[in-house]
Each structure stands twice: as structure tokens, then as C-alpha cells.
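Notes from the 1:1 (GR / supervisor)

We went over the backlog. Supervisor wanted to see one worked example end to end before approving the batch request, so GR pasted a single chain during the call. The sequence is below; no edits were made to it. Supervisor asked that the structure be written out right there so they could see what the output format looks like.
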Amino acid sequence: MSFFTFLLVGVGGFLGAVARYSASQYFNENHTFRLPSATLFVNILGSFLLGLLIGKGTSEMWSLLLGTGFLGSFTTFSTFKLEGIQLHVDKRRKDFILYNVICYGGGILLAFVGYEIGRLFA
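Structure output shown during the call:
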């Protein structure tokens, strides 16, 4: 791998992390949902955008910058898992099930929709 590859992933990762932090701050300050809404939002949006990016068939440079870098740090699997465990520990069974169904099912669905839309614009 070249220095340029690391730079693309690093710049994308930095911007994705800043965007994720901003989204978390916005949701935590402006919304009171029963489910962990910031993580739900970034993961669902990130699934759609990654599907769109792949469906469009972007170049390796854009895939590294936006897919691996930006969306890799914008979305979060570890926080999703931790928040799911917290819902389970708090005995919020319905919220736990709903959160997992929306994150997994919605993420797969929106990745597919994004992919199909991306193919239309390829």
C-alpha cells in the first residue's frame, strides 16, 4: 500500500469520525427517543450511503476515501452492540428487539436500496 492510500483512508476516517460525533451530539441534545437514536441514525444512513457508493461503482480512490475511511468511521458496530447489551441489561426487551430489527433489517434494506439507486446513476 502506498502513502496515498493511507492518506485517503485517514482523511476520510477523520471526517467520518467528526461527522459521527456531530450527529451524536445533535441527537443527544435535541431528541429524546426510547432507542439509542444517534447510533441507529448513523448506522442506517451509513448502510444506505455505502450501498449507493458500491452500486455506483466508484473508483478505488473514492471507495477508499468515502467507503473505507469516511463511512468506516461514521458507522459504528461496537457502540451498536454495547447499546443493545445495555437495553438487555435494563430489561427493556421490546426496545432491545426493536433496536436490533431496525439496525440489522433496516441496514440491510437501506444498503440494498442504496445499491439499486447507485446502479441507476452508474
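Supervisor's comment: The chain has a mean pLDDT of 94.
Batch request approved.
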